[in-house]
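Below is how a single chain appears once it has passed through the pipeline. First comes the sequence as given, then the structure the pipeline wrote out for it. We keep one example in the README because the format questions we get most often are answered faster by looking than by reading.
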Amino acid sequence: MVVRRSVARVVGVLVFPAICAAAVAYFGYFTVWGERGLVALASVQAQLAADQQQYETLRLARARLQHRIDLLNQGDPDMVQEVRRNQLLGAETGEVLVPRKPGTAP
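Resulting structure:
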């Protein structure tokens, strides 16, 4: 009977620390390796950097296009002529076109 009480007391004393240790281990595991843990944070940050670089590239391309649109809206003669030449495939009446070799700069 004395042994039973001592075993019951030891088990009773160890139950609460065992539950606490299990909870700490569970949450600690998911803090490091979980879906939103520290390991996943590194991959998300790498993806964010790639997306930010792509966004910056697109933003600059949009700014260039917006500048060209603004020039067309203002009636800039050079821009209007450039667009007209592109639409007419570079030909104007009375002009002679000299074909270039592919890959050479204008």
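Residues 38-74 form the longest helix (37 residues).

See the next section for the split statistics.
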